[in-house]
Amino acid sequence: MSIAAQIDDLSFTHPGTDLPALERVSLTIPAGESVALLGPSGAGKTTLLALLDGRLRGWSGRVSVLGAPLDPDQPPPRVRRPDSGFVFQEFALVERSTVLRNVLNGRLGRMPPLRALLGSPTAHDLEIARAALADCGIGDLAGRRVDSLSGGQRQRVAIARCLAQEPRLILADEPVSSLDPARAGEILSLLTGAARARGATALFSSHQPDLARRFAQRIIGIRGGRIVFDVPTPELNEAATADLYRETEPMPGTGLRAVS
Ligand SMILES: Nc1ncnc2c1ncn2[C@@H]1O[C@H](COP(=O)(O)OP(=O)(O)OP(=O)(O)O)[C@@H](O)[C@H]1O
Fold first, then answer.
1. Ligand 1 centroid distance, CA of 21 (Å)
2. Residue 61: which of 17, 22, 3 has the closest Cα?
3. pLDDT of 184-197, one tens digit each?
4. What atom in ligand 1 is closest to the CA of residue 50?
5. What is the pTM for the complete model shown?
6. What ipTM was reported for this prediction?
């Protein structure tokens, strides 16, 4: 089995905080699968995705992404960075730029540094960007400014930008939480379908167990920074999902909820 991410005994506390956001996490994410990360607010989903994206420093444990170990003290080398692509909940697009320009930004990491600095794409970059737009069903929007688009269209642009990067691992942080249910299904179908078509691995976080079931082959439950289950989708039962999202009892007399 080829492995997209291997995590052993990973712990991390955000600077300036006391409680770990991730605690003794161990996980294996097989290459080529679509995997959902479920868990309540504050569970550690964003932290785990950012860490796999090489954006956090000062963690402990061992983490390998696409066969290369991450260094807890250094960002990944530039040549490896485009291998993992990130889709953000709030799209993170350049609002006043065109759709095509935004998607071409996904090519920057694949360009030699001087070309990236000048922002001058080659014909090959343009070809890849246009193919990504077409795959996302928005070829006709190439010349539109992003700030004239709907939320669903913006997320398609963000996915196209990620695909233009030609990543082998696609990390997506609640990519559909701002969309209506129909749009959310379309976008997750697009994201996981595009990953599958490219032989890439997709790891997305969500608050919606039904969407995770529909679009992920594997579901990981995280709560309080710890993995509470990691199962093939058909094995996920209602009780485990309900327990993941259970409310803790208020602590007597305080109105506060106990951390479990
Ligand atoms: N930049 C930060 N600085 C300090 N603490 C942070 C930071 N980001 C997250 N945390 C803390 O780390 C813990 C995990 O947060 P994280 O955002 O990873 O959870 P999440 O599962 O993604 O939540 P949500 O579903 O609400 O996005 C929380 O206790 C949160 O308050």
1. 7
2. 22
3. 898 899 899 989 99
4. 18
5. 0.90
6. 0.97
